[in-house]
Amino acid sequence: MTEQLIISSGVRRVIVVVLDGLRPDAITRFGLQNILRLARNGASTFDARTVSPSVTAAAMGSLLTGAAPSHHGLESERFHIPRAKGALHPVAHELARCGMPSSGFMAHVPWLIRPLARRIARTLGLTTVRFRGNNATQVLEAARTQLRIQDTGLILLHWADADRAGHEHGWMSDAYGQAAVAMDRALGQLMRVVDLSDRSTVMIALADHGGGGRALRHHNSDHPADRTIPVIFAGGGVRPGTLPAGISLLDVPATILALLGIPRPASYAGQSLVPRGMMASPPAVPLAAASAA
What we know:
Strand order of the largest sheet: 4-3-5-1-6-7-2-8
Order of helices and strands: EHHEHHHEHEHEHHEHEEHH
Mean pLDDT: 89
CATH topology: Alkaline Phosphatase, subunit A
């Protein structure tokens, strides 16, 4: 049955796992059992689409701001402080206005570019950010304490194993498959850390892009293998089923806010997948924020 995301009220925390470079057909090709189990127990599609250009900087910019690359300004593979073409309302800023924290955990970056990485994180409004580890398991280890103590807002995990292997050895190669299995194994560990029977937490697992469409070791083209991504919602009372056809990565940030009871800003290019009548009650704006308004 195909329907909108049906979810209970009372969601207080959203955990987003970005499976960088994971093609949907790799899930069955390499037997990624934890991803398949999450999809069976949640609402999912293996036929969503990412943004254009289909590169990590552009996709992550859209995931964290709700805007298309042409609006937020990250239109290449290079991470930088872009000049946006209009107002931006990053997800983390919208959460902060309502007193909710946002945390991000990504792999180690070279010390020379670490100041830029932290500056980008601050610009996006992340209240806690860690660049630790070289693979999905190590990034998860760096996030364990935060997963335990942060019970509201957003926690983002970015795992780059498959993307790295795809660039080095080619998408759907044996090395790529081993990297995809490693990410799947880390997802299984995460599912043991996070109690998805707790209706206050929703987990979202998705890829930022695929790969190997027009070029074996790259992913920036309009080929379906580059642009098609999996998107899975689970926990928080999500009703198992199939997500609507035609959804996009751009629908995810609007849905994150809706899950937490926060209205969608006009700058967002996507739409919430949460039916209006099933949204959580809007959170109270903290006194300090109300005084500053």
